[in-house]
């Protein structure tokens, strides 16, 4: 019989563990209950894959169905996340059609693939996973709606914040929708659209008064191009730049050292500056305490909160009303698994605008403008199994929608549905006003709507089960007859199985000799198998004396690294493979990744592909 604590953990009711059934339960008892729940979660996850078993042959792995069934038996609450599978089947069906496993970026998607291809269901209900979406046709493929275009502004950040400027209704509506999604009030913060994350960081660095506030403290366990750009700009203005360090092997932030950087001695005016803080690592999934922002603010630092590593709805856990960072950055992309382009948002607390200087830098701020797309008078949706035919006349005439099947779900193009409204009834012929672009009144961010529909609890529970299952599964892969030297195929960096970890996993693959396989090679081979992964470079790793020997074998430098002339040191770290899970990730995605990584157990596979990669000497490996 399951203990009540294990049952609550399995059902994902972490909050229940924090609540006492007796009103007089003390604080320490609650903490003990939480710790017990977390331990039982770890034990249950470890036993969800054939307890105490290891896998040494990629041809003898359990089936996807078998392992998925075991996971659901261990955690029945997973079945309550089926809504995510239903949304994926209807709105992101391209992932199933293309068999694409998308694990290479994290963040907030604005729209759905269903919208992009010109399909849209009038019915507000979501089709079940067994309901097949309308088959793509040549015409639908041509309706690759860009949703919006961007134009660059030649204006400094402080000028834009103080005086604003003329903006389209689309931009105004998008601003309103994003601030609602982020739980940010326009009375507290002003928002600026930027071309990308690097632009947002550089704009802030160029405007921040490092001449008087001389210090910049960053908190990243990996090399971040956007942050590096900020560092270059800050140093150019005379800033002293330091980074938090991360203790090997769990890569948690070294609290003693970071506290020493942030805590200001009385009357030490030169210690103030900008503290850049993400809530979790985008590469390892390590989470950091909110309290670092509080400590920084209490000691006179301005705080930049980087929310780019947070998934959908995670801003709801932040409590901006409590911490209220001076600056906040978050990225948005258009369509999950299809279009990684998008924009970044830079939020500045209204009371902190006066801190910024007027900068000569005017690159990076953008405007969103409607994307025009005239109708094709010959456009129609048709196929041998068509459920509906849309006859479009020219852009000055009305359009008719005609049903040709018995009981189809009404399907319209994106342009029609935006004009029509999703609550309409089209059982008979209806007339639609012609449209040539997506205007502000028609803005519908279905990607954000899906996150709202799923909610924070469902999304976080689903990802928690999946990411921990992946870590457990990767840890079970071992080379046959490897002895005590590098017996495991995979090494995980950062947190292992944990109730409270982020949705990212960093790892490397080792051959039977114990030599690390180049992460870039693994990424290229994964791409050949239609699996999208990322590579990253872990840095700022701190080793205690007990890990000195391990430090010598683990640390590496990037190829072409230039020695720092001032310190005479190279920037050392660890190159890794990283995967990120999102709200549309499913179990089959992770099983396919796991079975692909298991192929490296075959020494012939490794040697053959490594030779081929070197022989071709190119950035991609052709099939």
From TrEMBL:
UniProt-recorded name of the protein: Molybdenum cofactor sulfurase
Species per Swiss-Prot/TrEMBL record: Nicotiana attenuata
Lineage, broadest ranks: Eukaryota, Viridiplantae, Streptophyta, Embryophyta, Tracheophyta
Gene: FLACCA_2
């Amino acid at each position: 019989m399951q203990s009540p604590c294990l049952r609550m953990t399995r059902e994902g009711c972490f909050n229940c563990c924090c609540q006492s059934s007796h009103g007089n339960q003390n604080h320490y008892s609650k903490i003990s209950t939480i710790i017990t729940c977390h331990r039982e979660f770890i034990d249950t996850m470890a036993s969800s894959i054939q307890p105490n078993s290891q896998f040494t042959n990629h041809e003898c792995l359990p089936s996807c169905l078998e392992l998925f069934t075991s996971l659901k038996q261990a955690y029945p609450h997973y079945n309550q996340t089926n809504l995510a599978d239903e949304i994926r089947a209807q709105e992101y069906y391209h992932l199933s059609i293309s068999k694409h496993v998308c694990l290479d970026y994290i963040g907030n998607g604005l729209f759905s693939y269903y919208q992009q291809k010109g399909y849209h269901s009038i019915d507000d209900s979501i089709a079940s996973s067994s309901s097949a979406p309308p088959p793509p046709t040549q015409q639908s493929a041509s309706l690759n709606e860009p949703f919006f275009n961007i134009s660059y502004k030649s204006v400094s950040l402080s000028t834009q914040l103080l005086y604003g400027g003329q903006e389209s209704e689309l931009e105004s509506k998008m601003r309103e929708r994003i601030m609602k999604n982020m739980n940010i009030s326009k009375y507290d913060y002003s928002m600026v659209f930027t071309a990308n994350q690097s632009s947002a960081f550089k704009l802030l660095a160029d405007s921040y008064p490092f001449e008087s506030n001389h210090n910049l403290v960053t908190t990243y366990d990996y090399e971040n191009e956007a942050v590096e750009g900020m560092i270059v700009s800050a140093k150019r203005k005379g800033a002293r730049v330091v980074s938090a360090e991360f203790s090997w092997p769990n890569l948690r932030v070294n609290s003693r050292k970071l506290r020493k950087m942030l805590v200001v001695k009385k009357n030490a005016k030169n210690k103030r500056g900008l503290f850049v803080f993400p809530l979790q690592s985008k590469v390892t999934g390590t989470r950091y305490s909110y309290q670092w922002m509080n400590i920084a603010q209490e000691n006179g630092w301005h705080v930049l909160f980087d929310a780019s590593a947070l998934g959908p709805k995670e801003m709801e856990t932040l409590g901006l009303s409590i911490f209220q960072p001076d600056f906040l950055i978050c990225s948005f992309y258009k369509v999950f698994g299809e279009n990684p382009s998008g924009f970044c948002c830079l939020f500045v607390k209204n009371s902190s605008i006066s801190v910024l200087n007027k900068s000569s830098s005017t690159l990076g701020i953008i405007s969103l403008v409607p994307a025009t797309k005239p109708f094709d008078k010959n456009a129609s949706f048709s196929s041998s199994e068509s459920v509906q035919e849309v006859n479009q006349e020219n852009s000055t005439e009305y359009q008719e929608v005609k049903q040709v099947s018995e009981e189809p779900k009404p399907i319209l193009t994106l342009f029609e549905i935006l004009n029509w409204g999703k609550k309409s009834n089209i059982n008979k012929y209806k007339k639609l006003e012609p449209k040539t672009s997506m205007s502000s009144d028609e803005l519908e961010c279905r990607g954000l709507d899906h996150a709202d529909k799923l909610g924070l609890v469902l999304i976080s529970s689903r990802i928690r089960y999946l990411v921990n299952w992946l870590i457990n599964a990767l840890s079970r892969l071992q080379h046959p007859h490897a002895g005590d030297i590098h017996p495991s195929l995979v090494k995980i960096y950062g947190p292992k199985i944990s109730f409270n970890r982020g949705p990212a996993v960093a790892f490397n693959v080792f051959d039977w000799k114990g030599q690390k396989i180049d992460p870039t090679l693994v990424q290229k081979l994964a791409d050949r198998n239609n699996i999208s992964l990322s590579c990253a470079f872990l840095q700022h790793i701190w080793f205690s004396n007990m890990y000195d020997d391990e430090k010598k074998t683990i640390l590496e430098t990037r190829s072409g690294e230039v020695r720092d002339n001032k310190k005479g040191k190279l920037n050392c770290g660890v190159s890794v493979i990283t995967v990120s899970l999102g709200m549309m990730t499913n179990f089959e995605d992770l099983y396919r990744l796991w079975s692909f990584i298991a192929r490296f157990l075959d020494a012939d596979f490794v040697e053959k592909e490594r030779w081929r990669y070197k022989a071709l000497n190119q950035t991609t490996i052709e099939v």
